[in-house]
Amino acid sequence: MSYTSLNYSSTYRCPACASGELNVIALMDVFACDFCRHMFTANLDTQSVQLADTVRSRIWHWNGWRWRTSQQRDTAAVMVWAFSAGLTIVPVTLIALSNYIFPPLEASNFPLMWIELTLVAHGVMAGWLLAEYHHWPWYISSRIRLKQLRERWFSS
Question: Who contacts 35 (Cβ-Cβ below 8 Å, separation ≥6)?
Answer without folding.
Answer: 14, 17, 19, 20, 21, 141, 144
